[in-house]
Amino acid sequence: MSSELLDALVALEKQKGISRDVIVDAIEAALVTAYKRNFNQAQNVRVDLNLDKGTMKVYSRKDVVEETEDTRLQISLEDAQKINPAYELEDIVEEEVTPRDFGRIAAQTAKQVVTQRVREAERGLIYEEYVDREDDIVNGIIERLDARNLYVGLGKVEAVLPIGEQIPTESFKPHDRIKVYITKVEKTSRGPQVFVSRTHPGLLRRLFELEVPEIFDGTVEIKSIAREAGDRSKISVHSNNEEVDPVGSCVGGRGARVQSISNELSGEKIDIVEWDEDPVIFVANALSPSKVLDVQVKEEERSTTVVVPDYQLSLAIGKRGQNARLAAKLTGWKIDIKSETDARELGIYPPEHQDQEAIENSSEDPYFDEELSTEKEIIEPIDLYMDAED
């Protein structure tokens, strides 16, 4: 082996990040193939590559047996012990069979195989790098596009953004920078294939983790996400610290945090609501920005009937039913919305056992004040009592 080949191995190790052992194994396998092909040899052989001395040798390998059936693969115990008395049955006898002109033939024949093995090793490294980044957000550059897919350069690999994972209202051109969410990494004959998305709820989750320190450090937790990409999303949050407002943390000063995320998603509207383990409160919160008068729960059917003021029925349902649909996805409960008038006609409102204070406190009315509301409930009965006395 020439010093040039040894230098090439060192260069490959540095440039491609592939260990020398992987490259040597590829070369040895290639040389075995070259030996069998060029010298019509069917026996088992082993190639020994000595990097320090710069030599290569070919050894035939034969199993020690009582009686030989194929002299190319086996050797009798008697013949083996003539070579070395220490040989026993089932041992392997190795004998050097390096052809005189093997170096020249091997270099020509093994070149393609070595190149392929090195390429496979490089692909393996890329696969291992990106498979660990599944469910993560990455920055990329649009490299090209066709009728169905966008192809995003991530550095060492080109990712595919299928049309079904693209936000309908967005359009890109080559060299545009873009944030994408890695959904899947596969091994293929052409190397690792990375699939990314702009519509996956995980993208919204990762963007909030990047933008909101309280989510990143675990103080505020994202409980669920419902998303119709490019149009509107709902996200429920919960604080693990009573002194931290989960909704306020996500919204940020003057809405800066949520606005930054909305801008990244081409103006997608984002509703942030507080999660609660009580489905009555959680469903009421999820229907924000509409006001909810009552939530009746059927545990066995995992469904709810929600009563809203007549003038807010369309707001609660949303355009094309979007608000109600997203609220149902967010909470995991079926939601049937009734106007106050319809609910009274059906005899389901007001309920006899419903905790109205819990529902009213869930309202996101900016003028709602819990303390004043409680005071009003106490004062009004007293005034009526006094009128009766007069």
Number of domains: 4
Q: Decide which structural class fits the backbone.
A: alpha/beta
β-strand amount:
25-35%
Could you name the CATH homologous superfamily of the largest domain?
Answer: NusA, N-terminal domain
Please identify the top-level CATH class of the largest domain: Alpha Beta
Taken in chain order, the helices and strands follow as HHEEEHEHEEEEEHHEEHHEHEEHHEHHH
Number of helices: 14
What is the residue-mean pLDDT, rounded to a whole number?
84
Residue share in helix = 40-55%
Number of strands: 15
Tell me the CATH architecture of the largest domain: 2-Layer Sandwich
Low-confidence stretches: 363-390
At CATH level 3, the topology of the largest domain is: N Utilization Substance Protein A, Chain:P, domain 4
Region (Disordered): 351-371
Protein name: Transcription termination/antitermination protein NusA
Function: Participates in both transcription termination and antitermination.
GO molecular function: DNA-binding transcription factor activity; RNA binding
